[in-house]
Design a protein that fits this description.
Number of helices of chain B: 7
Helix content of chain A: over 70%
Largest sheet of chain A: 4 strands, antiparallel
Number of strands of chain B: 10
Bound molecules: adenosine-5'-diphosphate, magnesium ion
Order of helices and strands of chain A: HHEHEHHEHEHHHHH
Largest interface: A-B, 19 and 22 residues
Structural class of chain A: alpha+beta
Strand order of the largest sheet of chain B: 6-7-8-3-9-10
Number of helices of chain A: 11
Helix content of chain B: 25-40%
Number of strands of chain A: 4
Number of domains of chain A: 2
Oligomer: heterodimer
Largest sheet of chain B: 6 strands, mixed
Chain lengths: ~300, ~230
């Protein structure tokens, strides 16, 4: 393709948008609404999943050792565990630390020293040294526990299966549901937008057939429509992203200021993190629909 | 140059618009095709433009058997053919200049050639001073001249005109016909579908008469044959 043709196609595409202003605005409006809904939904899901993940990471597994195991042997077990992919954190808690912690939790920080002093040199929780472990993904817990229980020198593993299973199934439920809703939203967007584009192109059917009869190639006829589709896609996706960004920043600020307790319960995903994915996603979807929408809808008018 | 051999066209509706038609038009000829409305003249033009496939028979244009032309080769063939219609078929949202220039953009003519050739084409059809106007600001005769300029700007080997004077008064009709004759004199093969008896009788060219999809007469040099 020659440069002059490229330039012509771009100019013509821009002209077409202005010339069919109502149709262009309708297409942009449709895309803005669809992507806006999609974005709102995406922000909710992302935050929900982040919240679940925070909970997940705090679900601990405690590993106790056989009586009289040496420090080296305990360290060796730790090494074996560290190889596991699903591991998030592993922390060694000595018998003394366990005892201190128990006292603090049971009698309160200020009274704890009375008890520990009384029992000095005689730890009732001897043999309760342990590894406290958190996993990246609770769904892997059962498998992980089986592995650890199988290791030499491990006396017992303490974990809460109910919490793990509950979280894991909640997580996959949310995963499937959001996938389904996102697909439906995208499908609706594609349908509505290609419908609008089809109407816009049907109006120009005569123009397309004149071009074809003069000897224009399919590509030449299509190029301005493709430019048009891309511009509509860019506008249709940039606008909701900007609005969503504004809303997200302000809503979080408002919520945190209004209900301080939310700060403790939920860790909102930062605006940057949300939009690092949401922005390119919307742009790709918008431009993609604009581009392929115009390619598909011009196709049936090109057979002249 | 334009050859039809035993061509039949039956539309999906069951109407047979052309029935076993054979025509041979040589390079450089000027041919009138006459016949009453519905006799199949437009269908014939569509065949030559490869807008339509014959139900049976063979169409050959510029030595190319249309049955063997691939879809992506069609634009290349159409660029050798200029076409003019009764209703002009101009692009309504573009100026006179742009309408003619468009035919050149389509074949990717460099802009500097377009700037030179479009004005000289508009001068040829007598519209040099109207290049900025839009189709709706022009009379029928003027619009048809724009369409003619568009059809000719790429120097086609063949010019097809389907009732080019159908919407024009006698004076404008005569002017368009004179332009077509000029074009033919410079070597382009010209085929004109028309109802205009006076012009056909006056110009004394080859006349092919179509009736109910069949050729009823083909005179080397003659006048309008009256329907019986
Ligand atoms: N696209 C079409 N589908 C069905 N029938 C058609 C179509 N085009 C033309 N016809 C029919 O074919 C016959 C010839 O039409 P046409 O070639 O347009 O004649 P003319 O141009 O001589 O008036 C007519 O009976 C017309 O109704
Ligand atoms: Mg006709």
């Amino acid at each position: 393709m020659k440069f002059s043709t490229l330039w012509y196609s771009i100019r013509q595409g821009v002209k077409n948008i202005r010339r069919n202003l109502m149709f262009s605005l309708a297409s942009i409006g449709t895309m803005v609404s669809c992507l806006f809904l999609f974005g709102i939904f995406y922000m909710i899901v992302v935050n929900f999943q982040a919240a679940v993940q925070t909970v997940e990471k705090n679900v601990t597994i405690t590993v106790f050792f056989d009586y009289g195991l040496s420090e080296e042997q305990i360290a060796a077990i730790g090494e074996e565990i560290r190889y596991r992919e699903e591991l998030n954190t592993i922390e060694f808690v000595s018998a003394q630390e366990a005892w201190d912690k128990f006292c603090a939790e049971t009698y309160g920080e200020e009274n704890a020293s009375i008890i520990t002093d009384a029992f000095v040199g005689d730890n009732p929780l001897a043999n309760s040294a342990s590894y406290e472990i958190t996993l990246k993904d609770v769904a892997k817990q059962t498998e992980f526990v089986e592995f650890v229980e199988g290791l030499d020198g491990v006396r017992s593993v303490k974990n809460s299966e109910a919490v793990a299973n509950g979280l894991a199934s909640l997580n996959s439920l949310v995963g499937y549901a959001s996938m389904a809703i996102i697909l439906i939203l995208l499908f609706v967007a594609v349908f509505l937008i290609s419908n609008t584009i089809t109407i816009g192109i049907t109006v120009r059917k005569e123009e397309i057939s004149i071009m074809k009869l003069i000897g224009a190639t399919d590509f030449f006829v299509r190029a301005p429509f493709m430019v048009e589709g891309v511009i509509i896609g860019l506008l249709g996706s940039a606008i909701p992203v900007i609005i969503l960004r504004y809303i997200y920043e302000n809503i979080i600020e408002y919520l945190m200021a209004r209900f301080p307790i939310i700060n403790i319960l939920v860790n909102f995903v930062t605006t940057e993190e949300v939009f690092a994915t949401l922005t390119p996603l919307c742009l790709i979807v918008g431009v993609g629909i604009g581009l392929f929408g115009s390619i598909f809808t011009t196709r049936k008018h090109l057979h002249v | 140059m334009l050859v039809l051999e035993n061509v039949t066209v039956t539309y999906p509706t069951g109407i047979t618009a052309l029935d076993d038609v054979s025509i041979n038009i040589e390079k450089g000829e000027f041919v009138f095709i006459v016949g009453s409305s519905g006799s199949g003249k437009t269908t014939l033009m569509k065949l030559l433009m490869k807008e339509l496939e014959p139900t049976s028979g063979k169409v050959t244009v510029c030595g190319r058997d249309y049955a063997k032309v691939k879809r992506r080769e069609i634009p290349k063939i159409r660029r050798k053919i200029g076409m003019v219609y009764q209703n002009f078929r101009l692009l309504k949202d573009r100026s006179v200049y742009e309408n003619v220039a468009f035919a050149q953009r389509v074949i990717e003519t460099p802009t500097r050639y377009i700037r030179r050739q479009v004005p000289s084409m508009l001068t040829l059809v007598g519209l040099a001073n109207k290049y900025k106007s839009y189709p709706k600001e022009l009379s029928g005769g003027e619009q048809q001249r724009v369409a003619l300029a568009r059809a000719l700007v790429n120097n086609p080997e063949i010019l097809l005109a389907d009732e080019p004077t159908g919407n024009l008064d006698p004076k404008n009709s005569m002017e368009i016909m004179n332009l077509l004759e000029d074009v033919n004199r410079r070597g382009t093969t010209v085929v004109v579908v028309t109802h205009n008896r006076d012009i056909v009788n006056m110009m004394q060219k080859r006349v092919i008469t179509v009736k109910h999809g069949k050729i009823t007469s083909d005179e080397k040099k003659g006048g309008y044959i009256d329907e019986v």
